[in-house]
Design goal:
Elements: H1 2-29, H2 33-71, H3 74-101, H4 103-110, H5 118-131, H6 133-150, H7 155-159, H8 161-175, H9 183-207, H10 221-236, H11 239-251, H12 258-293, H13 297-324, H14 326-334, H15 341-356, H16 358-367, H17 369-372, H18 378-402, H19 404-428, H20 438-459, H21 463-467, H22 471-495
C-alpha cells in the first residue's frame, strides 16, 4: 500500500508535467503536419520502449532478479547485473543503428499514409533519426529502475519520467524558435531526455552497491532464462501498445489531423492509467515474484484480488469523468494557439471511446504480473495474439462508420477481451480467486459512480460555453468539477463503509 502510494504520487507528478508538455505542444503545433510527424517519430521508439524495456524485458527480468536476490549471494547478483546490462546494451545498440539507417522505411511501415506526402515522410524520417536512440537510453534506464524496484526503491524510477517532460517543455520553449521546422526542436528534446533519465538513476544504483559493470555474456544462465522469458512476453504484456500503434497506422490513412486527435485523447487516458494501473502493477510484480519464490499461494491470490479491487475503485470513476468531461478537459488543456474548435470536437470523440476501455487497460497491468511473477510468459502471448487479431477485426468494422473514433473504440473492446481472458485463466489455474466481500464492494462502488456521473453531468456547463472562456475561468471551473466530483465519490464510499484499512496489504 505504501509503495503504491509512493509510485502513484511520483507518477501523478510525471503525468501532470506530461499534460503541461502537451499543452505547450498543442499551442505550438496544434494538429498540423509537423505535429503528426513528431508524434509518429516519437511513437515508434516509445512503442518499442514499452514493448522491450517496460514490457518484455521488465516482466522477464524482475522475476529472475527477485529469485537471485532471494536465493543467491550478492556476488551472483552482481554477476547477473553485469551480464544483463552488457547484453542489453549490445542488442539495443545494434537495433538502434539499423533503425537510423532504415528510418524512411520504418516511417512508411508505421504510418503508410505519410507516403502520399513526400515532404511529411522525409520530415518524419529525419526526426526519427534523432528520437530512435532514446530506445537504447530509456531501456538502460528501465533496467536500472527494475533493479531499484526489486530492492523496494520505487520513488526514483517513478520520478524519472518527469525528466522527459521537462526536457520536451524546455525544447518546445527554447529550441523550436531556432529551427526552420519547429517540430525538430522536440525531436532533439527526446534525445536529451534519454541521456538525462539514465544519468539520473546511476548515483542511486551506486548508493545501493548495485551499479553494474556492463559486460555482454549471452551464455550466463540468468541471461538465457531472461531471453527465453522475453521472447513470448514481447506480445504478452504489450498488446495494448501494439493496438495503439495499429491505430496510428490506420489513422495515417484518414484525414489530416487524425494521428494528433488520437494522441491528445490517449494522453488524457494515460494520466489515470499511469497513476493507478501502472503504479499498482509496478509494485505488485516484485512482491508477487517473491511470494511465488517463497511458495505462498494464498498470499499470492490475496495480492491479485487487492490489485483488482484497487483498480476498480479508482479506474471506474476516472473513466466516467473522462467520458462526461471530454470536451471541457480538452478545451482547458489544449484549446490554445493552433488547436481549433474542430480539433477539440474530433479529439473528444476518440477520448470517450478510449475512456470506455480505461478499466480494461488497468486490469491488464495488474493481471499480467500474475503470470510473469510465476515465469509463465507463454500464456499471455496466446491471449495477446487473440486480442490483437480481435482488435484488427474491430478496426475494420468500426473505422468506416466512426473514422478515428472507431479505432479508439476497437482498442477498448480488444482490451476487455484481453483482460477477461487473463482473469479467467488465472482463476482456472487456481492462483486467483475472489476474496470475501465482493457483493457489498460492488454495490458500494456502483453507488459512488452513479452519484459521480450524475453530479458531473448536472453541474458541467455546455461545452460550447467553455470555448468562449479565458484560461483562468476554464481552470477554476474544471478544478471545481474535479474536486467536487472527487469529494462526492469518496464521501459516498466513506458513508457506504469503505475504509482505507480495507486496502492495506502486507507485501
Amino acid at each position: 500500500m505504501r509503495s503504491g502510494i509512493v509510485v502513484s504520487a511520483m507518477t501523478m507528478l510525471s503525468r501532470v508535467m506530461g499534460l503541461i508538455r502537451d499543452v505547450v505542444i498543442a499551442a505550438l503545433l496544434g494538429a498540423s503536419n509537423g505535429a503528426d510527424a513528431f508524434f509518429v517519430a516519437f511513437k515508434i521508439p516509445n512503442f518499442m520502449r514499452r514493448l522491450f524495456a517496460e514490457g518484455a524485458f521488465n516482466q522477464a527480468f524482475i522475476p529472475v532478479l527477485s529469485e537471485y536476490a532471494t536465493q543467491r549471494t550478492k556476488a551472483e547478483v552482481r554477476e547477473l547485473l553485469d551480464a544483463v546490462a552488457g547484453s542489453l546494451t549490445v542488442v539495443l545498440a545494434l537495433i538502434t543503428a539499423l533503425a537510423m539507417l532504415a528510418a524512411p522505411w520504418l516511417v512508411w511501415l508505421f504510418a503508410p499514409g505519410f507516403g502520399r506526402d513526400p515532404e511529411k515522410l522525409a520530415l518524419t524520417a529525419e526526426m526519427l533519426r534523432l528520437t530512435f536512440p532514446y530506445l537504447l537510453l530509456i531501456s538502460l534506464t528501465a533496467f536500472s529502475g527494475s533493479v531499484l524496484n526489486t530492492w523496494n526503491r520505487f520513488a526514483v524510477p517513478a520520478f524519472t519520467p518527469v525528466l522527459l517532460n521537462l526536457s520536451l517543455i524546455g525544447a518546445a520553449l527554447l529550441l523550436t524558435p531556432m529551427m526552420t521546422e519547429p517540430a525538430m526542436g522536440l525531436a532533439w528534446g527526446v534525445l536529451i531526455a534519454g541521456v538525462a533519465q539514465l544519468a539520473f538513476q546511476v548515483p542511486f544504483l551506486a548508493r545501493q552497491d548495485l551499479l553494474p559493470r556492463p559486460w555482454p555474456n549471452f551464455t550466463h544462465p540468468g541471461v538465457r532464462r531472461i531471453l527465453l522469458l522475453m521472447a513470448p512476453a514481447l506480445f504478452g504484456v504489450s498488446v495494448s501498445q501494439i493496438n495503439l500503434l495499429l491505430d496510428t497506422v490506420l489513422a495515417s490513412l484518414l484525414t489530416a489531423g487524425s494521428v494528433s486527435w488520437l494522441y491528445y485523447s490517449d494522453r488524457l487516458v494515460e494520466l489515470p492509467l499511469g497513476v493507478f494501473g501502472i503504479a499498482i502493477g509496478t509494485v505488485i510484480l516484485p512482491a508477487l515474484s517473491k511470494r511465488h519464490a517463497e511458495k505462498s499461494p494464498e498470499h499470492f491470490a490475496k495480492m491479485l484480488d487487492w490489485a483488482v479491487r484497487a483498480v476498480l475503485l479508482l479506474g471506474l470513476p476516472a473513466a466516467l469523468a473522462l467520458a462526461v468531461l471530454a470536451e471541457p478537459l480538452l478545451i482547458s488543456l489544449f484549446h490554445y494557439g493552433a488547436m481549433t474548435d474542430h480539433d477539440i470536437a474530433m479529439a473528444a470523440m476518440s477520448l470517450r471511446a478510449y475512456s470506455l476501455g480505461l478499466v480494461a487497460f488497468m486490469l491488464i497491468k495488474v493481471l499480467a504480473p500474475g503470470f510473469f511473477a510465476r515465469q509463465d510468459t507463454a500464456t499471455p502471448v496466446k491471449i495477446g495474439i487473440v486480442a490483437m487479431v480481435a482488435n484488427m477485426v474491430f478496426n475494420l468494422l468500426l473505422i468506416w462508420p466512426l473514422a478515428h473514433a472507431g479505432l479508439a473504440l476497437a482498442t477498448a473492446l480488444s482490451a476487455y477481451l484481453n483482460a477477461g481472458l487473463l482473469g479467467w485463466l488465472l482463476y482456472k489455474q487456481g492462483v486467483f480467486h475472489l476474496q470475501p466481500g465482493w457483493a457489498r464492494f460492488s454495490i458500494q462502488l456502483g453507488g459512488g459512480c452513479l452519484l459521480l456521473g450524475a453530479g458531473l453531468a448536472w453541474f458541467s456547463p455546455d461545452w460550447q460555453q467553455w470555448l468562449g472562456w479565458g484560461l483562468w475561468q476554464r481552470v477554476y471551473s474544471l478544478l471545481a468539477l474535479v474536486v467536487g466530483g472527487a469529494a462526492t465519490y469518496f464521501t459516498w464510499l466513506a458513508l457506504a463503509g469503505i475504509r482505507l484499512r480495507h486496502f492495506r496489504l502486507q507485501g
